[in-house]
Amino acid sequence: MGPLKPVVFSDFDGTITQEETFVGILRKFAPEKSRELIPRMYDLTLSLKEGVRILLESVESRHYPEMLEIMKNAPIRDGFNEILDYLDSRKTPLIIVTGGLEDFARIALRPMLGKIHSIFGLRVNTDGPRLSVISEWASDTELVSKPLILETVGKSVSANPPVLIGDSVTDLEAALSCPVVFARDRLARYLQERGKPFLPFENFFDVRQSFSEMFPVES
User: Fold this and answer.
1) Which pLDDT belongs to residue 1?
2) Of 1, 11, 88, 130, which has the fewest CB atoms closer than 10 Å, so is most exposed?
3) CA neighbor of 115 nearest in space, from 141, 67, 80
4) How far apart are the C-alpha atoms of 44 and 80, rounded to whole Å?
């Protein structure tokens, strides 16, 4: 029997990026709605499904090119390129699951896309005066159901249990049901409050070190 090769799922905003880029863009282009709704999503009194849709669909479509331009310079967390190389050397797929927009992740990570298995998130239609959300992975509470993606996509890629890396509210439901979770920032606090074990991290060098200890390569 060979070494265990789990599939790795990573959040994007605030996890791969150093900052909550999606939240920052919403605050820039939908400031009033953001002030009202983002705190409610963080304290879990407003569903992500409702809040994210309202926020995105309040943004004028003419701003979308500017939003993409901002993402070109999104700062990436230390060690991400290195962990991509490490996982690739182990033939372990890394899949990005973002509660934000797929386009944002693709444009920020364009030099690294060849090392990333796939990206799942929201898309938008820009034909009308305001953005219109397109979601293929919605649940009752989320526009992007990460538990559904981990279950469906994970099983199609690997028979082994998934590993999740995340930082905030969009990762909570998936983290509660995932056997191995790397967490920082808000997600770490949510999991502490719920008694769910997790591995803390600040950068992807931390993740690589813990991952290599949990899933050693047979010599």
Assistant:
1) 37
2) 1
3) 80
4) 29
Assign residue 14 the CATH number of its domain. Answer: 3.40.50.1000
Please work out, in degrees rounded to the nearest 5, the angle formed at the alpha carbon of residue 28 by the alpha carbons of 50 and 118. Answer: 60
Cα atoms found within 13 Å of the Cα of residue 173, Cβ hemisphere only: 20
Tokens of 44: 């879990």
Distance in angstroms (rounded) separating the CA atoms of residues 197 and 42: 20
| Tokens linked to 215 | 């899933």
Query: What's the number of domains the chain is made of?
Result: 1
- Does a structural domain hold residue 23? yes
| Domain assignment of residue 1, yes or no | no
Q: 143 is in which domain, residue-wise?
A: 8-214
- Evaluate whether residue 2 is within a structural domain: no
Tell me, yes or no, whether 19 lies in a domain.
yes
Bridge partners for 122 per DSSP: 101
Q: What span, in angstroms and rounded, lies between the C-alpha atoms of 37 and 54?
A: 9
Q: Report residue 75's pLDDT band, with 50, 70 and 90 as the boundaries.
A: very high
Cα(190)–Cα(172) distance, integer angstroms: 7
Instruction: Give the pLDDT band of residue 206 (cuts 50, 70, 90).
Output: very high
**Residues belonging to the chain:** 219
User: Residues 118-175: pLDDT tens digits?
Assistant: 999 999 999 999 999 999 999 999 999 999 999 998 877 776 789 999 999 999 999 9
* 6 pLDDT tier (thresholds 50, 70, 90): confident
Q: Which residues pair with 59 in a beta bridge?
A: none
